[in-house]
Design a protein that fits this description.
Radius of gyration: 28 Å
Number of strands: 6
Helix content: 40-55%
Length: about 350
């Protein structure tokens, strides 16, 4: 059956090919020769599949050249357009972490990426349910960007499956015990131990510590200011306990970048690097079984055990929970009171 003029063509290539059927469409005309300028939109295993692809293209044409950009090239375009200085640092970090998990896709053309390619990336992720979920969200964002700019027609990422049960990542919170903390204090020559104690004796989220700039640390007043947090309540002034003050001084003095903590290359220490080079080795060395967030729960438990006022605890750790009437009256807490509270633990 002859196809309509200007509709495109389907033809079989010679040789032994896995996908011998080619589909081409007219994208313009040479001004001098008036010959058609044609582009291949894809290769297919049989004629029917090729005709369906041509039909889909005519119903919803897409930018052929852009569709052949690699995943890495599309990511850079998307990141440059949607990630700005105003984007929450935690959101940036999550997208960057998801992108880092997608290395097998980097050099693949977007039009050649299959569902199985992306599914393998998700299935090979070893970081648990939330990390796999973020990869799927990230891939959906990439496809939405491609569809919006008419690089592609369909969002293949919608069909991806999260094959990790969320219940498997849930665990009962296990604060550091007194004996475990005592073991840490005996090994403060270890940088991983010092950072862990800084987390325990401040109650900050690890992201808040990793994003902390030296300019926001006031050693003279023994406090630091969290200017970027996952909640509004998280933007706060945090006291530096006397016990860990020497660690703070050391890291700030030795830092080779704008941040309190840096990696071996003198750049900001990222979450992935912290886990890989500090947290996991620490857990293995001491035989502990803790996730990083349990340093925060440990601080809260220790403050409660020290009979610190609940409002003061919320001021220190930046909880977003609602205050009762008494707490609403007692809202102004100065740094001196915060220091007195943190030094009780």
């Amino acid at each position: 059956m002859k196809l309509p003029n200007g509709y495109g063509s389907v033809y079989k290539l010679s040789g032994n090919r896995r996908k011998p059927w080619a589909v081409s469409v007219t994208v313009g005309y040479d001004k001098e020769t008036r010959n058609q300028q044609r582009k291949i939109i894809g290769y297919y295993t049989n004629r029917t599949e090729a005709l369906n692809a041509l039909s889909d293209y005519n119903k919803n044409p897409f930018d052929i050249n852009s569709a052949k950009l690699t995943f890495n090239e599309i990511y850079k375009r998307w990141y440059g357009e949607f990630i700005t200085d105003e984007t929450n640092a935690n959101t940036k970090r999550q997208y960057e972490a998801a992108y880092n998990q997608c290395k097998p896709l980097y050099s693949k053309k977007m039009c050649d990426i299959k569902i199985i390619d992306m599914q393998r990336v998700m299935d090979n992720c070893q970081n648990g349910y939330q990390s796999v979920r973020r990869i799927k969200i990230f891939l959906n964002r990439i496809y939405e960007y491609c569809i919006y700019h008419e690089f592609l027609r369909n969002n293949l990422a919608e069909k991806l499956q999260i094959n990790v049960k969320s219940d498997e990542t849930k665990r009962i919170r296990q604060e550091f015990s007194e004996s475990e903390i005592n073991k840490l204090w005996k090994k403060t020559d270890n940088a991983s131990v010092r950072i862990t104690l800084m987390l325990i004796y401040s109650g900050v989220r690890v992201s808040e510590l990793l994003d902390l700039k030296k300019s926001n640390a006031n050693i003279d007043e023994r406090s630091f200011f969290v200017e970027d947090s996952k909640t509004k309540a998280g933007i706060r002034t945090v006291p530096i306990a006397d016990k860990v003050l020497p660690f703070w001084k050391e890291f700030i003095e030795n830092s080779k970048c704008d941040y309190v903590l840096n990696n071996s290359f003198g750049k900001r220490l990222t979450y992935d690097n912290f886990k890989r080079h500090y947290w996991y080795p620490l857990m293995n060395e001491f035989g502990f079984d803790h996730v990083i967030h349990e340093t925060r729960h440990t601080c809260i438990s220790m403050l409660v055990a020290a009979d610190v006022n609940h409002t003061v605890i919320k001021k220190i750790v930046g909880h977003k929970s609602k205050m009762d009437l008494t707490e609403k009256v007692y809202t102004h807490v100065n740094i001196k009171e915060l220091l007195e509270a943190i030094n009780k633990i």
